[in-house]
């Protein structure tokens, strides 16, 4: 069994960022366990046509690794993957990464004060600190549609795109109209013979202001790095101002709703289609989707927008709620991810011998989105209530990384190997989150993946992002029990 100080699970933005910052602090005793064939997390896994980031590139990157070479103001997926690969190489992270290594079990061993991490390749790891960087948008969610098992054509999820399947001349059903579908539908539409787009809820589509970055701009960023930092700051401020509407004064969202309505009216002329694509909930309650290509794609002669859900799947067709049977060769699921169910939580077992998933019971909660009582020395990156709809998750990740680094520093200085958050701190923190969530746009009645099995919004950070940064800038040791591992339990003589 390999013994390390820190084991990081996952090598997306959060896992890589954590590793880089550890190295920068002179800490080299860590491994990254990654189930995929390369680093990059979601940006390695999602390769669907048109995949791109809807948050501007200058902000959607590490603050410590600016990239002056972005080709567009919003980067396509291959560039972001390339960026993450370069970060792994340039910061010397590769030697720490174990690729194609899936964690199958992680168990706290109190007597040792360590985590025992088992993997599917038999290379087990013992670590004092376990950092879960598995990402909230990792496990595809495919609806359990009646008859799906009997379907004779091809099916796949947007996050596991089947590039071997030739779409040319095929009849395809695409289910879901979320952030992924609005990117791939316009891209596959010209290839297929027929595309049936199944929309359960009409999304809010905003005009997209993506544009190529000119060579001269790139040259300027290379020559003058502070200029790129300035642009990043400007983008951050502009994005952050949206919190005024989303969280502080939701009625003000009407301003953005108006812009989206004008966009819709400019692009959609048919009244029947207009009725179908008009959202029936407040803008921002679900993620706002920027696209100039979505409405035009829906109006192509080979596209049919089917509203309502899917009733059933038959061996060669999909039947909508309208009862109409549509013959198809393939079904693509743009149906999102298992977020609040978080399958990774089933793998992690704490002091009570119970998996995190059982403790959460369908309603994930953590202190500062990172720590849970009964799970000492476990830090969740991008854990509960750290998600954003309006700004860069990389900003949130970097805030949490600073928190973890300060936790490790505090343990070192206090000469205690174990830190466990108290139940009181968890309760207090989550009560505050719930209070902040009241009166926000996310509480206006729509059903979204932000809500867990109990209806609680366990995904979104409901306040300014700079406030999250402030609150995670220092490890709040008062919220923790700092201790040595408990001595081995001596069996009581009979
Ligand atoms: P999503 O936003 O959760 O969308 C899933 C879609 O599938 C929704 O339209 C949903 O309809 C529909 N759906 C789910 N189950 C269904 C069923 N049984 N029958 C019919 N329709 C069903 O998933 P996603 O598009 O993969 O995006 C997930 C998240 O990934 C995003 O919110 C975003 O955070 C992230 N993402 C980001 C980017 C980016 O550019 N940064 C790009 C892609 C994804 P309802 O609305 O009715 O539930």
Report mean pLDDT, rounded to a whole number: 96
Task: List all distinct small molecules, including ions and cofactors, that are bound in this structure.
Answer: NADP nicotinamide-adenine-dinucleotide phosphate
Radius of gyration: 23 Å
Poorly predicted runs: 489-494
Which structural class do you get from the secondary structure elements?
alpha/beta
Cα-to-Cα separation, first versus last residue: 34 Å
> What's the helix count?
14
Task: Bin the helical content.
Answer: 25-40%
Number of extended strands: 20
The best one-word shape is globular
Q: Strand content of the residues, in percent? A: 15-25%
Description:
- The structure is a single chain.
- This protein has 494 residues and is an alpha/beta fold.
- The chain has 14 helices and 20 strands.
- It has helices at 13-24, 42-45, 77-90, 181-188, 215-223, 225-240, 242-248, 254-267, 271-277, 294-298, 356-360, 393-414, 423-437, 465-472, and strands spanning 2-9, 30-33, 97-98, 103-109, 114-119, 125-132, 154-157, 171-175, 194-199, 205-206, 289-290, 303-307, 310-314, 317-320, 325-327, 330-333, 348-349, 378-380, 418-421, 480-483.
- Strands 1, 2, 3, 4, 5, 6, 17 and 18 form an eight-stranded mixed β-sheet that branches.
- Helix 1 crosses helix 12 (393-414) and helix 12 packs parallel to helix 14 (465-472).
- The structure holds NADP nicotinamide-adenine-dinucleotide phosphate.
- NADP nicotinamide-adenine-dinucleotide phosphate (NAP) is lined by residues 52-55, 137, 143, 158, 175-181, 198, 200-201, 287, 309-310, 334-337, 449.
- The site of NADP nicotinamide-adenine-dinucleotide phosphate has 25 residues, from loops.
């Amino acid at each position: 069994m390999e013994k390390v100080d820190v084991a990081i699970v996952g090598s997306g933005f959060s896992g890589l960022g954590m590793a880089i910052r550890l190295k920068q602090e002179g800490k080299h005793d860590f491994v990254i366990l990654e189930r995929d064939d390369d680093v990059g997390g979601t940006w390695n896994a999602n390769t669907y046509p048109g995949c791109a980031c809807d948050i501007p590139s200058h902000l959607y990157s590490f603050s410590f690794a600016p990239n002056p070479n972005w080709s567009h103001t919003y980067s396509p997926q291959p560039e972001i993957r390339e960026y993450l690969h370069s970060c792994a190489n340039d910061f010397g992270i590769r030697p720490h990464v174990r690729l194609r290594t899936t964690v199958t079990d992680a168990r706290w061993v109190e007597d040792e004060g360590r985590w025992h991490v088992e993997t599917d390749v038999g290379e087990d790891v013992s670590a004092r600190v376990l950092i879960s960087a598995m990402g909230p948008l990792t496990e595809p969610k495919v609806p359990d549609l009646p008859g799906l098992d009997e379907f004779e054509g091809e099916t796949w999820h947007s996050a596991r795109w089947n590039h071997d399947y030739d779409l040319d001349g095929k009849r395809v059903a695409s289910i879901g109209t979320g952030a992924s579908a609005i990117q791939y539908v316009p891209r596959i539409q010209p290839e297929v013979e027929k595309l049936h787009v199944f929309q359960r809820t009409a999304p809010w589509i905003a005009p997209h202001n993506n544009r190529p970055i000119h060579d001269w701009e790139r040259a300027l960023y290379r020559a003058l790095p502070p200029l790129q930092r300035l642009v990043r700051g400007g983008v951050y401020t502009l994005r952050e101002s949206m919190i005024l509407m989303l969280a502080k004064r939701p009625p003000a969202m009407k301003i953005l709703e108006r812009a989206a309505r004008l966009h819709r009216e400019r692009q959609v002329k048919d009244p029947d289609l207009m009725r179908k694509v008009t959202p029936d909930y407040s803008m921002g309650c679900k993620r706002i989707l920027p696209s100039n290509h979505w409405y035009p794609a829906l109006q192509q002669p080979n596209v049919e927008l089917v509203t309502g859900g899917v009733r059933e799947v038959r061996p060669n067709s999909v039947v909508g709620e309208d009862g109409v049977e549509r013959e198809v060769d393939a079904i693509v699921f743009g149906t999102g991810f298992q977020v609040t169910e978080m399958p990774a939580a089933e793998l992690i077992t704490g002091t009570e011998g119970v998996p995190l998933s059982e403790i959460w019971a369908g309603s994930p909660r953590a202190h500062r989105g990172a720590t849970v009582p009964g799970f000492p020395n476990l830090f969740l990156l991008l854990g509960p209530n750290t998600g954003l709809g309006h700004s860069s998750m990389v900003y949130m990740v970097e805030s949490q990384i600073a928190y973890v680094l300060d936790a490790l520093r505090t343990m070192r200085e206090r000469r205690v190997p174990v830190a466990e958050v108290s139940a009181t701190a968890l309760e207090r923190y989550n009560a505050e989150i719930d209070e902040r969530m009241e009166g926000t746009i996310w509480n206006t009645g729509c059903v979204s993946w932000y809500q867990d099995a109990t209806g609680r919004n366990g995904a979104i950070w409901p306040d300014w992002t700079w406030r999250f940064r402030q609150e995670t800038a220092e490890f709040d040791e008062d919220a923790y029990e700092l201790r040595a591992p408990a001595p081995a339990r001596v069996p009581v003589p009979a």
